[in-house]
Amino acid sequence: MKSAAADFGDGIGERAMVQVADDQLLQQEAALEKSLERLEDELDRANAGNRKAIQDNMLDVKQRLKAVQEQAKAAIDLKKTEAAVKMTALRAQAETAAKDAKARIERRISEAQADFKVRTQKLNQAWALAKKALGPQDDAANRLSVPGPRRDPGSR
Fold first, then answer.
1. Residue 3 placed within a domain
2. Whether this model's pTM surpasses 0.85
């Protein structure tokens, strides 16, 4: 019989794949930021004929940075939802489990919360770096608040 936690991707291989995807977002953001910096340097040195092409390249890089930022936000939202569902399922198991099983479930809850924190820190970093590279913008999409998974008041 498969546990409820297994239904929510408790496997090591799946965790590794998700961590690789999170790391790829960070790497992609860093590469795009370098491209943008390089283009800004070229623009400073460019003559009038080259300026338009460089500005077009900069616009493309900024659009790709915005896409990375949106991917990071979507991944954060998804992880927040997944963590909440997982915590709810594990807490439901803990309510009906024997004493020793409750300790194991509480340990899994702690591990899941720690995993959520690490993953969202990486994604928040990618999001913040993309925002910084894009420069100041006055839209609501650039104000992101990611609380951790909700904790029941009755749990430890």
1. no
2. no
